[in-house]
Every structure is written in C-alpha cells, then in structure tokens.
Amino acid sequence: MDFVGIVSSGLMPSLCYFYGRGALLPGVLISLFAFFFAAMFRDNDFKDAFLDTAIKTVGLVYLAVPLSYMILLRSLDAGRWWLLFVLFVIWANDTFAYFTGKTIGRHKLSPYVSPNKTIEGAIGGLAGAVVAGCILNRYLSLGMSISGAITVSAILGIIGIIGDLAESLLKRSAGVKDSGHIFPGHGGILDRLDSLLFPVPFVYYFLIFRMQA
Questions:
Q1: Where are the domains of the chain?
Q2: Which terminus of the chain faces fewer neighbouring Cβ atoms within 10 Å, N or C?
Q3: pTM for this structure?
Q4: pLDDT over 90 (residue 113)
C-alpha cells in the first residue's frame, strides 16, 4: 500500500471522530476515487493498475474501516467500558486458545490456512472469553444478564477466531509468514490486531440495536 493508500486509511478514524458513522461511506468512496486517480499517473505502467487498486481497497475496508469503529464505539454511552470489554474478551480468547492448544491441542482447526491452530485451542479460547466476559460484565456494570454476557462473549470469541484465520488466509495468499517485523517472533502489528478487526464493529451495532429496541 503506497502513500495514497496509507493517507486514505489514516484519515478514516479521523473522519469518524469528527463526523461520526455517517462519514464512513463517503470516506470509502472518496478513497476509491483517489486510488483510481493515482493509478492514472503511474508513468504509463498500467499492467498492475487493477491489482494495485484492489489491494488498496481491500486494505482500506479490511483494516481502516473496522479500526475506525473503535472511535465510534468509544463515542457511545459507556463506550469506553464496552471497548475495554471487547479488548479483554478477545485477549482472553487468544491467550486461552494459545495455552490450551499448546497443552492438549491435537485436532487441526484449519490445517491449510493456519496449521498451528487446533479445535481444542479454539474451545479453550472460547471458555476464556466467556469467563472474562462474565467478570467484566459484572464489574464494569454493562447491564447484561449472565446468559447475555455468555452469549455475547462466545460470539466475540468466534468472530475473533474468524478474524485471526482471515488474516492468516491473506498471509498465505501473499506467501508471507508474518505481517511485519516490528515485534520479533510475534509477527507484525496486524498479527496483534487481526482478531479485533471484526468484533469491534459487531459490538458497536449490538449496542445500537439494543438502544433502539
């Protein structure tokens, strides 16, 4: 992703901060226009213009838009506590999944996409997510019943696993092991955030639906 893609993605959270959720679609459309406009000035090298524009668009929708929902979630009533809830539930899911998989993992969850992930690890992760969600629901006074906290936490855990596998799928298709080298031995920043990309928008719309119900 070159300068135009980086700037467009960087501006998405700012647009949401100043103008709210209504800025998301215009931001995406303006960015798409900018991607095509930039592609027209590639020194007559149009062979990869479609692929280049598609990669920028996927990066914008896959990364910048979901991360912008952190701003939107925090702007809701008690939004900072809900954001904390999502972070800890997903971190608990990842942590429990890792140690359970390392300890008793035997059956591969998705051997071609992510060979190291196991079904046992996923179950352990979901258990950790549910425990963390129930504790946080009580001490952060989020107003969910026990069954509601269990359901929401389990859904977040499942969505987090899907997000993790989605990022692994992208890395496999690109032929790379890690998304970057900022954290030696731990992959790049995206490897630390991949399981958060989908859960945050889910919680945002869950709260919007609950407020309107």
A1: 1-75, 77-213
A2: C
A3: 0.88
A4: no
